[in-house]
Amino acid sequence: MLWRWIFWATIVIIAISPLIYWSTGIGQNANELSTAITRLPDGTLISSPKAQAYHQLSLPMRLERILIYPVVLLAFYFSGMAVALRQRIDMWLARRSPALLRRLSQRLPPRLTLTDLLTIGVFVCLFNLALFSIYLPFNFYRGFIVAHQFGLSTQTLVGWFSDWGKSVVIELLIAVATWTTFYGLMKLLPRRWPLPVGGLMVLFLFIFALLTPIIITPLFYEVSPLTDNDLRTRILNLSQRAGVVADEVYVIDASSKTTQVNAYVTAFGDSQQIVLYDTLIDGYSPDEVEVVLAHELGHWYYHHIFLSLLGVGAVGWLGLFGLRWLLDRIWPWLGLRSPTDIAGLPVVLALVFLANTFALPIENGISRFGEHQADVFALTISQKSDASVSLFEQLAEQNLSIIEPPAWEKFIFYTHPSVAERIRFAETFDND
Ligand SMILES: [Zn+2]
Q1: Of the residues 202, 205, 244, 383, which has the fewest C-beta atoms closer than 10 A?
Q2: What is the pTM of this model?
Q3: Distance, CA 68 to ligand 1 centroid (Å)?
Q4: SS3 (DSSP) at 252
């Protein structure tokens, strides 16, 4: 009863929290604020008023998400709703052509039936759709309303909803495939499942990273070759100096959605792609574009993407053994039919989310180290410390970054060194 109450309370909080953020008036007044960074006589930089206002609104949203999300998952389970949902799906499936199901099931190994797989698939679908709907107002407020109030988004309403629809479909497909495989292998190999599940997880991490620029990015953006020949030559020369063999530079039409700036180099084996946001080409000098690209080439040079996939894979794999250990002990207490009961999914998700959250400071510490390495590489190869400083300032103005966040916030959330640190480093970097 208490858990049911907690569940509905959290749903109400998620649903009405956008109204609370709205009622502060911070977003409505954002338009009038300046995006200019102030430089004090002693060289200290002060975040723009707009960036500070944005931070005032985005930090509580970030904390809300981290604190409330695991509670929703746990309350959904402990209120008995997850088990009730699984029972309903079981009953519903039992009524639909059981003869056909039984005949098809005969082709599967004895421990796994087709009904099992269907129950898992339907459960994952319904559960994820519910989560998407619960978070729709929150995500719309954060991703559309606030982003427009602060001039970070150029998307139309239709464009936003069509992107949202696409990501719902993609994430649903991935979730169904992931959890059906996960629970299917658990049923087949009750003792040894972490081995194959971990292997598949690492494999999919790599395949997904490889396919994202080829399949996912074109679903959201138009990709075309860079037409500016001077810039193209400069970029190709720079990448050659870094040891990347690329013969084409691509541009994506990010300006149709956002004012934010980015670039990336994807390199797996022989398929090396350099991709720039059109917002970068339009708003920055060729020297600054070179610095951005040199930074991305730094990630490539140090194999950061490869290493991070490897690290995530290895830690995730170990985590699966931890999960087995825990599930084997707590499933009777949870009231599950077995450790492989799909009704336990919300608990598994909450555990994974909590583990990820606690790992965040370590993960981000490693990330900040890698970003600094890429900055050093960029300065060394481009020899452009002035352009670096002006780039970091302009990026901070445009992306509404806080110049020097509080230490605790940097420790938990920051994937990059602060703007102040990056500028200080570029200023003191010896070009020789
Ligand atoms: Zn980077």
Answers
A1: 383
A2: 0.88
A3: 30
A4: strand
Cα–Cα dist 27/228, whole Å: 38
Positive or negative, the CA dihedral 421, 425, 426, 427 is positive
346 contact partners, CB below 8 Å, separation of at least 6: 73, 74, 76, 77, 82, 127
Q: In 40-63, which positions are buried (b, 16+ CB within 10 angstroms) versus exposed (e)?
A: eeeeebebbbbbebbbebbeebee
> For residue range 364-405, what is the model confidence (pLDDT) as tens digits?
999 999 999 999 999 999 889 999 999 999 999 999 999 999
At 5-44, the pLDDT tens digits run 999 999 999 999 999 999 999 999 998 999 899 989 988 8
CA distance linking residue 118 with residue 172, whole number of Å:
15
Compute, in angstroms, the gap from residue 149 CA to the centroid of ligand 1: 27
pLDDT band, very low/low/confident/very high, at 107 (cuts 50, 70, 90): low
β-bridge pairing 263-268 and 45-46: unpaired
**232: which 2 tokens?**
């193209």
Q: How far is the CA of 6 from the centre of ligand 1 (A)?
A: 40
Ligand 1 center to residue 237 CA distance, Å? Answer: 20
Contact residues for 85 (Cβ-Cβ < 8 A; gap 6+): 123, 126, 127, 343
CA distances from 193 to 34, 185, 336, 396, 426 (A): 55, 6, 18, 46, 49
Radius of gyration of the chain (CA): 24
Q: Which helix (H) or strand (E) holds 273?
A: strand 271-277
Residues with CB under 5 A from ligand 1 (ion): 371, 374
What is the per-residue pLDDT for 98?
63
Q: Average pLDDT for residues 333-339, to the nearest whole number? A: 92
Ligand 1 centroid vs 265 CA: distance in angstroms?
Answer: 10
Ligand 1 centroid to residue 296 C-alpha, Å: 6
pLDDT in tens, 116-144: 889 999 999 999 999 999 999 999 999 99
Q: CA 116 to CA 102: how far, in whole Å? A: 11
Return d(Cα 245, Cα 270) in angstroms, integer: 8
| Dihedral angle computed from the Cα positions of residues 130, 134, 140 and 146, in that order, rounded to the nearest 10 degrees | -150
